[in-house]
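Notebook B, p. 112. Complex prediction, attempt 2.
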Amino acid sequence: MVEEISFALSEEQQMMQDTVRQLVQATIADGIHQMDENRQLDKQAVQKFWELGIIQSMIPEEFGGYGMDSSPVLHTLVLEELAYGDMTFAIYAMLPAVFVLPIVHLGAKEQKELYLPEFCNATFVPATLAINELSVAFDVWNCATTAETKGDKYIINGSKCFVPLADESNFMIVVAQCEGNPELFIVTRDNSGIKVGEREKNCGWWALPTFEVTFENCIIPASHRLGDSTAITWLLQRTRTALSAIGTGISRASYEYAKKYAKERQQFGEPIASRQAIAFMIAEMAYEVDAMRLLSWKAASTIENNLDATRLSYLAKMYAGEMTMKITDYGVQILGGHGYIRDHPVERYYRNGRSIALCEGMAII
Amino acid sequence: MIQLVTPEYLVTLQNNMRKLAEGVLRPISRKYDEAEHEYPKELDMFRNIKVMARPKKKKDGEKSSSGEEKKPKRGANLGMVATIEEMCWGDAALLLSFPNAGLGNAAIIAVANDEQFERFGNKWAAMAITEPGAGSDSGAITTTATRDGDFWVLNGEKIFVTCADRSEVVVVWATVDKKAGKSGIKSFVVEKGTPGFTLEHLEHKLGIRASDTGTFVLSDCRIPYNNILGDPEVKMSTEGFKGVMKTFDNTRPMVAAMATGIARAAVEFTKEQFEQKGYTFDYKKNTANISAVERELYMMEANVEAMRLLTWRAAWMADNGQFNNLEASMAKAKAGRYATLVTQRCCELLGPVGYSTHYLAEKWMRDSKIMDIFEGTGQIQHLIVARNVLEMSSKELK
């Protein structure tokens, strides 16, 4: 039972926030522009994050992990800090969690034994989630990928997009319709029914390799079904909250950059920040970043207390989707013509920020 | 540790207050909107409830009465904003009409000495700051207080005074030394019936009509010297004025809570109406696969959550002794503006039901508009936030 409300970070939460913030500064802050242009995130940065042990800590000791209770609030803080560096860093570095966390929470004993030890490794283990599809107004609940029961097997057919690191991931969770309800299935890379397509070229996420993945009569044993028909509800609460935290990180980055620029940029003999037209935009950015963060904290806190967060995670993602666009738009606008040039990061925030509202399942808490 | 699930005791408080709002305020909501300025006598039942209480003063070195372990801190501000939201879900104008709970009471509780508290503590106190020529720029007030032996003589005009008619005393802001600027501004308790103190007229307003907003004229109004609140000394610094302005850090989250309550009332009513028409709201499908009505209502709900969270954060900070000038203004800036937008859109979605006075939606739209105006307009809040985050002075950012 909850005794008292608190908006303050605990020592542990503060320490984690500081650690990830410093890691972002030390690894990608200076080079992210070039990484974005070169279409490749620095893998050493990902490895450094892996070495913090955040993902390994979620795995019970009996399977080789540290056996800590995974904390949705803590993950929300981590995702915001990573996304403050770059959205692609948040997705990339935390990606194994989209496989590990559902197994830890929903998996049968055999599934845990089979997969979890793979992630107690000294080097980053890529694993991914195939949820989005390249269709107009894509909706998880009506996804076109199907899993058909045949004897003691499932046959998966369909095509997924935005599957990060699909080329190098040995493990993935696939969302497919099964008897009228989207469900989760574990598919391993050695399955001959999977075809990983060309690397996608998207509006944003340049530093993140994402792929189209096609399933053609992809046969998996019945034991690869993960959880039951409620698994998708469990998953969406956590992925939607995660996306709201990422939106907060991108928005904060855009806000802080524009704020600094507005104080330095001189026009008519004074900083443009001394004009209310600019100052009021910055004020709005400031409180909307906070509002977005508080909504993601609230959803995460609700999940952490084992309460249903269907509504709150939905609202948090929706709010973050709308506000990330508004704030990253303001970011470009405050810089004016300079904001449109790729030398400044606000254009990248704008491209990346657009994705929050239109995708699902890119990260998890 | 971040913990944002509403605790049990606050849920209980919210439930009790909502029952009160539903049982007492909602049934008379329309009646007193139409009977503009008439005192809602039904509120007499609250006359003896101490809405605002003076905290007990602790002497230095005083220990808690027993060696018991301290219970978790239950903040007065958080309880207050939670209560206010529920009450304004019922009716904001009626909340403003609660006996003995005026802004002046807050000022008296905060700064009156024991002798003054003895005299005025149990009286309904209004607050008179605004003048025809001084709105947001409250440092520019021209009402004067001149010392004359054991008396102060007040001259000037005060407008937009809430509870102007019903209050028993009015806390009036006046300058004792125009040359001293903001540091010359002091507040004085003026009792009704004092010669030279006239309630000139009551305003007819867009909304919160149950609240009696009025204009006072002070014409050679003589009050006892001891009616000055706080230090009579004029110090050539703006510390005193800043101290007065600081009380707004506590009242701004309250207005934000009022805004949240009205907005929530409108969203709940609108959802209920659409549910009766067969709409379902299940928070499942992505936003490209829902109707425009669903989408808009979800976004309004998200905004109400955001308004409440910003408000609760500011109140929680005050309860924990943290300086919350920035966060209080953030809450007011967001909640004031969005209460207006949300209630407007609800009326549009409701169509004629949103415009007919058979329902309360149109009233909520009118009532909510004041939330972006009083206790500092939305523009002033944005200015405060901007100066704070940009670290610019009022000279650098006008």
